[in-house]
Amino acid sequence: MSHQKWAVFLAVGLVFSAVMAKESKPKKKSNLHLQSSTFKDGGFLPAKCSRAGGNQSPELTWTGVPPKTQCFAIIVDDPDASIPAFVHWVIYNIPAKPTDPTSNTYELLEDFPRDEKTNAGILQGANGFQDIGYDGPAPPSGTHRYYFKLYALDAPVRLPAGETAAQLMKAIHGHVLGWTQIMGQYGHS
User: Fold this and answer.
1) Which of the 8 DSSP states describes residue 40?
2) Where does residue 107 rank: exposed (0-12), middle (13-18), buried (19+ CB within 10 A)?
3) Who's near 108: CB < 8 A, 6+ residues apart?
4) What pLDDT shows up at residue 99?
5) 88-142 pLDDT tens trace
6) For residue 84, is the peptide bond before it cis, meaning its omega torsion is within 30 degrees of 0?
7) CB 134 within 8 A of CB 167
8) Whole-number CA gyration radius for the chain
9) Which residues pair with 21 in a beta bridge?
10) pLDDT: is 46 or 24 the higher one?
11) Nearest to 79 by CA among 7, 139, 18, 30
12) Beta partners for residue 105, in sequence order
């Protein structure tokens, strides 16, 4: 292959790679805001949220929802445990109905039930422990980071309960209107 043909081939490959990378990442809307009364972003999760200390999911609230949002999905993972990140919670088809209409605030209460499907139609998937619902931090040593990722979706997720985070990410591709995250830490003293 001549030098010119190689340069053209490389340029086309780089453009294709850039387009694919842009397509595979969901858009981030700066007005979507996630927080928790259980822990501060970047702070430590309490023992009650750990697998050994109560295994209670933290309370989560969010505001700044993009227009046309039909539902939400949340994935909680620990990138310090493994590659790919170890998944602690997969929950989807959270209705886009504010818990507080006056402030357009949405909420998942602390210690969310571990049911595959709730009466509201919320579905939960399999985490890295092969359980349904939330399983909290259980690092073998050191301090790990736990990312709570919230996705605003333009359509309900067409998956049954019990699916993995990878299956959920594939299903929501092209349907993410915005996303945000907060991080909590947990470690052994």
Assistant:
1) -
2) middle
3) 57, 59, 60, 61, 74, 91, 94
4) 87
5) 999 999 999 998 888 889 999 999 999 999 999 999 999 999 999 999 999 989 9
6) yes
7) no
8) 19
9) none
10) 46
11) 139
12) 100
Tell me if residue 9 falls in helix, strand or coil: helix
Closest CA to 90 of 176, 167, 174: 167
Q: Is 34 left (phi over 0), alpha (psi -120 to 50) or beta?
A: beta
CA 104/CA 147 separation, integer angstroms: 23
Give CA–CA dist 143/124, Å, rounded.
27
d(CA 13, CA 85): 28
Q: How far apart are CA 78 and CA 185, in angstroms?
A: 9
pLDDT at 72 over 50: yes
Give me the residue label for tokens 């509201």.
120
Q: Are 98 and 106 in contact (CB under 8 A)?
A: yes
Q: Are 117 and 92 in contact (CB under 8 A)?
A: no
Residue 14 phi, psi (nearest 5)? -65, -40
Instruction: List the Cα angle 52/53/56 in 5-degree steps.
Output: 105
Q: What is the pLDDT of residue 102?
A: 87
Apex CA 140: angle with CA 138 and CA 146, to 5°?
45
Q: Give the predicted TM-score (pTM) of the model.
A: 0.84
